[in-house]
Amino acid sequence: MSIINRDDILETIEMIRSENLDIRTITMGISLFDCVSDDENKLCENIYNKITTSAKDLVKVGSEIEKEYGVPIVNKRVSVTPISLIGGGLDKNGFVHIAKTLDKAAKAIGVDFIGGYTALVHKGATKSDINLIESIPEALSSTELVCSSVNVATTKAGINMDMVDLMGKIIKETAYMTKDSNSIGCAKLVVFANSPEDNPFMAGAYHGVGEPDITINVGVSGPGVVHSAIKRAGNCDFSHLAEIVKKTAFKITRVGQLVASEAARRLGVPFGIVDLSLAPTPKVGDSVAHILEEMGLEMCGAHGTTAALALLNDAVKKGGVMASGHVGGLSGAFIPVSEDRGMINACYHGALTLEKLEAMTAVCSVGLDMIAIPFDTSSSVISGIIADEISIGVINNKTTAVRLIPVYGKKVGDTVDFGGLLGYAPIIKVNNLSPDRFIKRGGRIPAPIHSLKN
């Protein structure tokens, strides 16, 4: 039996009260394979009933745990089986019907988002995949809570450049169709390499084919806690600094493990994983960029930023795996520009560029995330940005992703406000030299040689 002493309790209280420690999300994963029907209306009815029955107590249980343990739980979410896998012979309109059904179910149970409007096309695409992908702009413009993702590459399969080309066009179309709300649809759409099946974070969450019928995954967050720990440590060397981050990540993850286990027990479903990612918010004291600056950088984006982020990401993972037997999802440090006050400030000052952000993604958890760009950026340039970022994931055998927002009516130097956790951001400069001929070659960039491990 573990012994929790008074100092541990007081330290956790201080983390919550003063350092923005929270559980970013409790996400229930739900399989929809038993909902399949060749009748579109019956399929949607089955989906609605499965979600509203399985997750009917999710918000209530989350709120109860929040009150009993005093740990803020920011979001309650649902992820479902990739919809292209259960859509069968549906056309684009049929998939939009499913998206609206997901939205209706999410609202009925009171969750913040529902993920899984997803296609897995890393090696090729079925007619069902294409229909879903082409329906994404309408689906995201006609719903509020639905999130979408497309996996276009894996280390084992290589990069499906036909889908990379298509996703550049889909992002532009989604931006236009949600132009009256700052192109917000693109904030709910992510393009992946090596997407995990148990990720609790939106917009990329879906319930993978290897998952149980229903499961609970939890995403923790604590940039403020790590920042405070580094600040208290003062001018120590890197070995000591890594130990501090590792021990802090251990404590953060233990809180997540407690909440995840308790939620699973009360809901009567299996506990899946704890994702120990440091997920920032626009709030003061909740920034990954400020952690890097506390390490000694004048501003995030200065030379040395990638090395600092590498240390942080590695130490967070090492601490987390000691705290939970089931760490999964993405797990590490997120760098979503619009959601991180320090990143926003660095972009305003020109210290962070798209190229520097891309370099940083080689060592962090995800990729080019929540970056606002001019609307007149061409679809082929967007596809080129996706191809570059996805190749980092494929070559390094890690998850990378792209969530770009070409904001309608905005140009470099303007600011866009998405509200809430999505934050605000400057529109940053994009290199508009055309990769069009390169992208149009199509086909598949072969898997790297190390994919042959077996």
Q: What is the CATH architecture annotation of the largest domain? A: Alpha-Beta Barrel
Q: How is the main sheet built?
A: 11 strands, mixed
Overall average pLDDT: 91
CATH topology of the largest domain: the name is Anaerobic Ribonucleotide-triphosphate Reductase Large Chain
Q: Total domains, how many?
A: 2
Shape: globular
Helix coverage percent: 40-55%
CATH class of the largest domain: Alpha Beta
Short overview:
The protein has 454 residues and is α/β, with parallel strands linked by helices. It has helices spanning 6-18, 40-54, 58-69, 92-109, 127-141, 161-177, 223-233, 238-267, 288-294, 305-323, 341-348, 354-360, 379-396, 436-439, and strands at 22-30, 73-80, 113-120, 146-154, 158-160, 189-193, 214-221, 271-275, 368-374, 400-407, 415-417, 424-426, 444-445.
Structure commentary:
This protein is α/β, with parallel strands linked by helices and 454 residues long. The protein has two domains: 25-193, Alpha-Beta Barrel (Anaerobic Ribonucleotide-triphosphate Reductase Large Chain); 218-452, Anaerobic Ribonucleotide-triphosphate Reductase Large Chain, CATH 3.20.70.20. The protein is built from 14 helices and 13 strands. It has helices at 6-18, 40-54, 58-69, 92-109, 127-141, 161-177, 223-233, 238-267, 288-294, 305-323, 341-348, 354-360, 379-396, 436-439, and strands at 22-30, 73-80, 113-120, 146-154, 158-160, 189-193, 214-221, 271-275, 368-374, 400-407, 415-417, 424-426, 444-445. Strands 1, 2, 3, 4, 5, 6, 7, 8, 9, 10 and 13 form an eleven-stranded mixed beta sheet that branches. Strand 2 (73-80), helix 4 (92-109) and strand 3 form a beta-alpha-beta unit. Helix 6 (161-177) crosses helix 13, helix 7 (223-233) runs antiparallel to helix 8 (238-267) and helix 8 packs across helix 10. The radius of gyration is 21 Å and the shape is globular. The model is unreliable at 1-6 (pLDDT under 50).
